[in-house]
Amino acid sequence: MTGAKTAEVSANPTGKAASSAPAHARPRAVGPRRSRLRYAGTVALFLLPSAIPLTLFTLIPMAGSLWTSLHEWNLITPMRWVGLDNYVELLGEDRTLAAFGHTLYFIAGYLPLVYAGGFGLALLLNRAMRGRNVLRAIYFLPVVTSWVVVALMWKWLLNPASGVVNWLIGLVGLEGPGWWTDPNWAMPSIILASAWKDLGFVMIILLAGLQAIPQEYRDAARVDGATGFKSFRYITLPLLSPSTFFVVVISLINGFQVFDQVHVMTGGGPAGATTVVVEQIYDLTFRYGRAGAASALSWLLFAVILIVTLIQIRAQRRWVNYG
Amino acid sequence: MGKVLRAIPVLLGALVMLFPFAWTVVTSLTPDGALLVSPPDFTPEGAGLDAYRRLLEAMPFWRIVFNSAWLAVASTVLQLVTSSMAAYAFARLPFPGRNALFAVYLATLMVPMQVLVVPLFLEMRAFNLVDTYFAVLAPTVASAFGVFLLRQAIAQVPREFDEAAVLDGAGHPRVFAFVILPLIRPALATFAIFGFIASWNAYLWPLVIIRSPEFMTIPLGLASLHGQFTTEWNVVMAGSVVSVVPILILYLFAQKHVIASVAQSGLK
């Protein structure tokens, strides 16, 4: 889910807590050598169960990925050192540009849709309403459903000939498109399914943000004559900006890493119309046997995500209000 | 009046959220003949469980459900153990280089699975572990996210609690197990829910490392089912129903807690 990214984003404001261990906890570390050894053993006992797997299955593969990205390798014959050739080649390949283009297309459709929808719902559900908790639970249901199931559901709903969606479109007298079978409509199909799945997540985050705004602020604004739109513009929006920031950062990271729904709904097709970056990484490795290029592309993607996220963290000072 | 106007879009939206699930169930009960018809048949004649029967014939489905379940439980439990222990060390055991080590833990969070997939696959292949439970499980047994989350929780426990236990002669393992862990139960529950859902729904890594049906997890099984039965949507939807039901039950029980945890994550 979105868990891993949660920490990534919130690491910043709370990171300073790392050094807050008071000095009085230290005495255990000094004393005779024997007890110092024992203390070191205790620390190791607590750390090794996570340090060993993280080293084996995250740090070593990271290093391996960098190393592989500097080689030409089809996974079978020995590696051949090519230096930065993979990166240079990738940057010159139309397919790479197309993959980033498709990813950006996905983000450009998905982010506004999921944000506008989630925000609208959060505003509507922010007032007292009977059955609000049930509604919240319903909207959140797709969030806990697996991507594969969601992708299959929507592939069926968007079936061009016998799907429910085209039948509904037919009811109002229009002819529905070919959805995932049509290169022009395949990406919109994926965007639709993705927005449907993540709407509840965005709504919950923004709703929590809205409910954290003290009612006194709105009351005070009302006393000063600000109601309706004015109160929304000058009270709600600025005070909601931390939640908005969180949603945008997470959605962008998820958007750049989009894969599951694409792989299931279209496999990157038709005619390569939905080959997003991660799909391209997958194809490079397992279809074209270019493990070196695939590793290089994954680092390019990582670099892009990192830069985009850093820019947002930088830019947040200008628009995010931490009160 | 305003209340009614507000309720309309919200209820319509709820319908849009629920309909795909309902349609999945209806399709799973539809016989082949009534499947690819236009207009869609909402009350198909001869509805029955035939698609479920074929689902069970097409693949070792219960085995696949079992795989997903035990892998999700194992991954969640192991993550809870390894992460809470590391979190304790980072919150309560001062040692030289602690902050630097914590930074390394946090850095691993920044690396997306996509970067790791290829080298991890090669590493597993080098040790002849492709297509094994171990290979699916191993990369998920430690979670830097969990360490981070639980360290925050432990840092909020007043030190007087541990000190009282230490005065009673308890060592760190006992303070950890009997004082700290019970006090951070809410954070442990939050993390367990995230971990379980993430493992239950994981697709990319199992897709890369698993080949044979008997080691598949549900998302993989469903995707391969879709490859086999490209037009028999009733079988595919039957598989979807079976795979959604367990997580749905879990969700219904933990619903309030799940939503509260997610809401909390956006508030810091």
UniProtKB/TrEMBL annotation, chain B:
Membrane-spanning ranges: 7-26, 69-90, 102-122, 134-154, 175-197, 235-254
Keyword Transmembrane helix in annotation: yes
Protein's GO biological process: transmembrane transport
Cited InterPro entries: MetI-like, MetI-like_sf
Gene Ontology annotations for the cellular component aspect, listed alphabetically: plasma membrane
Principal cellular location given in the protein's record: membrane
Its membrane topology: Multi-pass membrane protein
Keyword annotations from UniProtKB, A to Z: Cell membrane, Membrane, Transmembrane, Transmembrane helix, Transport
Superkingdom of the source species: Bacteria
Domain ABC transmembrane type-1: start-end pairs: 65-254
Subcellular locations according to the entry: Cell membrane
Coiled-coil blocks: none
Family: Belongs to the binding-protein-dependent transport system permease family.
The protein's name: Sugar ABC transporter permease
Naturally occurring in which organism (per UniProt): Acrocarpospora macrocephala
